[in-house]
Amino acid sequence: MMAHSANISTTLNASDHAPNLAGLSQSGHTTVAVFLGIILVLGCVNNLLVLLLFVCFKEIRTPLNMILLNISLSDLSVCVFGTPFSFAASIYRRWLIGHKGCKWYGFANSLFGIVSLISLSLLSYERYATVLKSTKADSTNYKKAWVYIAFSWFYSLVWTLPPLFGWSKYGPEGYGTTCSVIWHLRSPNNASYIICLFLFCLILPVLLMAYCYGRIIQAIRGVGKINQMTAQTREHRILLMVISMVTFYLLCWLPYGTVALIGTFGNADLITPTCSVIPSILAKSSTVINPVIYVIMNKQIYKECKHRNQVTQPKQSLLMFILHMSFHLLPIPSHTLLFPSHSKSNKSIEIYCKC
Fold first, then answer.
1. Whose CA, among 17, 170, 204, 247, lies 20 to 30 Å from 120?
2. What SS3 class is residue 118?
3. 173: helix, coil or strand?
4. Torsion from C-alpha of 298, 145, 50, 294, nearest 10 degrees
5. Which architecture, in CATH terms, is 2-353?
6. Per residue in 118-148, pLDDT tens?
7. Residue 100 contacts by C-beta under 8 Å, 6 or more apart in sequence?
8. Domain ranges within the chain, ordered by starting residue
9. How far is CA 146 from CA 151, 279, 298, in A?
10. CA angle, 219 as apex, 217 and 220 as ends, to 5°?
């Protein structure tokens, strides 16, 4: 399979199209196309719904929520500038937009994906800072939010531009209908980049999220000693939400990173076409999951939009109907933990725990 990638890369350098691939069967390509089509549609719908909510309901345009908007924009960018090309390639069983298109696809998807990952970790840190460090959440000060957003894009560019200038490179991956960093190259140049990318763009954000949410749960337990009547129920619900967020994060991205490491340092023969395609699909599925967990299923956003809808226009009523159906039908826990109050210390923690 890795040999196929090498052959495809050589062919793309010489022509505009990759050849038909034997690494994945016709039914395999069809299955991949179906999943990518579903991800494309749901990703666009979910993230466009988030954008419409922010346009129609000014009450939710708080500084912290701008980070969520940044995540949604980067996820939507993946759906618009990436997924359609891999979807079409899976239908035709070959890469369709040439070597330059392959490099663009690899760069753009890496850029937007890392922006989302870093934004999620920064969001966890801001929640942690608000609760544990008694940082006041000023609803009129957008400076910190813009700093976070700018940092997420700058950080992502730092790690996605190097392959365009010689530190590793972008090219076909797996079965040849998607492009990314060429994991299988066994050179020191490529290996050093893969290690840095894995550590600083996957492991570090995961550790930051785990630490921040772990400290928040500890704080909730401390408050529970004061108010034991509701503490246990709140703690269980918050714990379930945190586990859901971290689990989905790892489920979407850890398999992709693991396959990349095996392809770079391990036995490449272990990476079958199926083993290469599943992590890629899981990574793209984050564009569907993120807006559901962080925005659509958020109880505070739902309540604020519902309150605003009492005196709203027809287009907002339609949005509220969609949000209402999503909020009540999707089995994902939602809590105001996602959006801190403007209070400090224990009072802030109590509002974070409110369900």
1. 170
2. helix
3. strand
4. -30
5. Up-down Bundle (1.20)
6. 998 998 888 888 777 665 556 677 888 999 9
7. none
8. 2-353
9. 8, 32, 22
10. 65
